[in-house]
Protein: EamA domain-containing protein
Amino acid sequence: MSFGDRLNNLHGGWLALLGVLIISPDAMLIRLIKADDITATFWRLAFLTTALLLIALWRGARRGDSVVASVLPGKYELLTGMFYGGTCALFILSVRNTDAANTLVIISATPLLAGLMGVFVFKRAQPMRTWVASVVVVVALVGIVGAGFGGENALGDLLALCAAFCMAGFFNVLGARAEIDAVKAMLFGACMATLAMVPGAQPTEVYGLDWLWLLTLGFWVLPVSFLFISAGARKIPAAEVGLIMLNEAILGSFLVWVVIHEVPSSTTLICGAVVITTLVVHSILGMRAGRRLRATPAQ
Structure:
C-alpha cells in the first residue's frame, strides 16, 4: 500500500492532529535561531518556497502538466498567495518580537477573524454563536495587545494580529473559490515574501545549528504539516479542524516554556484561556449544529 493510500485510510481527525503535532515546534525553532530577524525570515521562506516548488512539480508531473503549468498561478491564486506570504513573514517576525505564547494565542483566533471577514468582505451570514464568540475573543485579544502597548512586545503583538488577518483572508478566498490550487497559491506567496526580505537580509550571516533549524522549518515543519492538515480538512468538518488546531497554541507555548524557559505573562495566560475556551465551545456548538443539519431529512 502506498503512502498516499495509507493517508486516505486514516481518519481526518488523526491526520489533522498529526499535522498539528508536526507544526507545534515552529515557534520554538524560530526562537532558537540566532541570525537576525530579516535573515532568519528570508531563509525560512526560501526553504519553504523550494519545498513547495518540489511539491508543485511532483503534482504537475502526476497530472501530466508542463513545468510552467505546474507552478503558474491563476488570478485568485495570486490573491490567495499574497495572504499566505503575508502570514508566513509576519508570523516569524512576530515570534521574534514578542512572547511566543502571545503570537500563538493571537493566531489561534484566526477562525473567528475569518468569520468576521467573511461577513464584512464576502457578505456571508454567520450564526449568533459566532457573533458572541467573536466579541469575547476580540476583547481578549485587545487585552493581550493592549497589555504590551508601548512595551517591548508591542510590535510583535501587532504583527501577530496582522498575521491572523492575513491567514483569515487566505482561508476566506480559498473557501470562496473551489478551483484554487492551494499549492500554487502558497508557492507564489512564499516566493514573493522571500523576495521582499532580500533587501534587508544577510544570507551569509547564518552559522552552526541555525542551518539545521531553518532546514527543519522549511522542508519539514511547514510543508509536511500543511499536507496532513489539508488531508484531514477534506475528511472532517471545518469546526473539528479548528478545534484540533487549537492544540498548536497549547503545545507550541509549552515547548517554548520547556526549551527556551520563556514563561507567558499572567495577562497572556488569562486572555489565552478565554480565547481557547471560547473557541472550544464555539467549535463544539458548530459540530452539533452540523450534525443536526445532516440528520434533518431533505424536503
The two ends are 42 Å apart (CA to CA).
